[in-house]
Write a structure and sequence with these properties.
47% helix; alpha+beta; 3-stranded antiparallel sheet
Length: 456
């Protein structure tokens, strides 16, 4: 049983007070140096100091939220919007007019535009593409050579997103460019978030030049995608067509900048998070080969000798639980920020208007107060009779409320199908140079995963 039992809103009777200041800050950088040096350990330890804790990131004061109940309250309350250090660091990439960064009426309209592409009854149509890409991955790995899992994972994620949501073979040649650009961008953006020294990032140092090159190339690439679709004269029933045909609240076509930002929001965060999760799944299968054995047994029982198809996914419950447990222990989105739009309170603490809040799904989902054997990889904890003991909001890999990822069902189906196909075909072994330490950026993934696929 778990010991977490607080529900959102339970703290209202407590007198408002200033949250405690976390120890260990240094002049100028504050706690930013700890977030840059060992952020996972730092965020995971904060709950021992309070439910809400003040941090200093350079000149800024931010409020770290450390309990499942209070992170749920932040996600659901209209007192907080998408903003803060994380989103400021992403602004150059995502812009102001995409569904990932917009707030209020604009965000609601944009969700209405894209939501039909991710409805439960729409997802089966993507199944053949997901299966085709999964088996193409298996075929490409049959040579027995060394595999750069970073490149392989992001290539698969980009191709599936592009082929399902933008229906264009023109994406094939651009997949590698997207992966290369994202690798540079998401690393640089994290540094800009935790050490917000704006003018220094304009100095023409090698890291800044590479960041700016990747950013410019990705924006050019998106403009190419939109231009190619318009030039083709085609209107397939996909998300890109929906965006090009979308109207604003006055019934006028949405602007070019909004189209651009929406395509960025579809291609980049989704591909980055799914690619990072594929990497973590392959790490798990390598470190725990018995999981792959059980997945293969489940596939043989459910599917038999034929290829795995989309219709099999809902029956592959153990495989789905492996995916869920991977999302728990290795969440790609490991840190989130919000901003208070009014004077409010949280957990009995005063939160002033304009204050930035930060919280970590990684820390929440590994908390010993919420999970027995919290560091142990245990897919069976997601069996119905056991998952009921997990506290509310202690497992929200796709967030909650009106900021819940619209592609949650799409992503789970994609990851479950990929895992079933890959684990049925191969076991995996590390090769020299493989580095499984976490790579900390805007997303979380293994640093340099190099594997060899061993046919079963």
């Amino acid at each position: 049983m778990t010991v977490e039992s607080v529900e959102p809103g339970a703290s209202g009777a407590t007198a408002r007070r200033e949250p405690p200041l976390a120890g260990g800050g240094v002049p100028v950088l504050g706690h930013g140096w700890k977030l840059a040096r060992d952020p996972l350990a730092f965020m995971s330890a904060l709950r021992d100091h309070g439910d809400v804790v003040r941090l200093r990131l350079g000149p800024k004061t931010v409020y770290a939220v450390t309990t499942p109940a209070l992170t749920g309250e932040v996600a659901l309350s209209p007192d907080y919007i998408i903003a803060g250090p994380l989103w400021e660091s992403l602004q150059d990439l995502l812009g102001d007019e995409g569904v990932a960064t917009a707030n209020g009426p604009l965000h609601r309209r944009q969700r209405r535009t894209i939501q039909p592409a991710f409805k439960l009854d729409a997802i089966p149509a993507y199944g053949p593409i997901m299966a085709e890409e999964a088996y193409a991955l298996v075929e490409r790995w049959n040579s027995g050579g060394e595999l750069d899992i970073t490149a392989e994972s992001f290539r698969a994620a980009v191709r599936i997103a592009a082929r399902c949501l933008m229906r264009g073979s023109y994406m094939d040649a651009r997949a590698d460019r997207i992966c290369t650009d994202l690798a540079a961008l998401f690393s640089g953006m994290y540094q800009r978030m935790v050490v917000p020294l704006g003018p220094l990032y304009k100095v023409p140092l090698p890291a800044n030049r590479e960041f700016n090159r990747a950013l410019a190339d990705l924006h050019v690439l998106v403009d190419e995608i939109v231009a190619d679709r318009r030039a083709s004269g085609q209107k397939p029933d996909d998300l890109l067509t929906a965006l090009l045909d979308a109207k604003d609240d006055n019934g006028e076509p949405i602007g070019e900048q909004e189209i651009h930002d929406q395509v960025i929001a579809i291609l980049t965060p989704g591909s980055e998070t799914v690619g990072a999760t594929i990497m973590s799944l392959l790490l798990v299968l390598t470190e725990h080969p018995e999981l792959g054995d059980r997945i293969r047994e489940e596939v043989e029982t459910v599917v038999g000798d034929r290829p795995v198809a989309f219709d099999d996914v809902r029956k592959l419950t153990y495989t789905a639980n492996v995916v869920t447990e991977t999302l728990r222990l290795y969440p790609a989105v490991w840190i989130l920020t919000r901003r208070a739009v009014t004077d409010t309170e949280l957990g009995g603490y005063r939160i002033p208007e304009g204050a930035d809040l930060i919280y970590s799904p990684y820390a929440i989902q590994r908390d010993r107060r919420s999970y027995e054997r919290h560091e142990e990889f245990d897919p069976d904890r997601w069996l119905p009779e056991r998952s009921k003991d997990v506290p509310k909001y202690a497992m929200s890999p796709f967030s909650v409320g009106n900021r819940k990822c619209p592609s949650d069902h799409f992503s789970m189906a994609e990851l479950t199908l990929l895992t079933a196909v890959i684990a049925s075909a191969y076991r995996f072994a590390h090769v020299p140079g493989s580095d499984i330490r976490p790579r900390i950026g805007i997303t979380l993934r293994p640093r340099r995963l190099m594997l060899r696929a061993l046919p079963r």
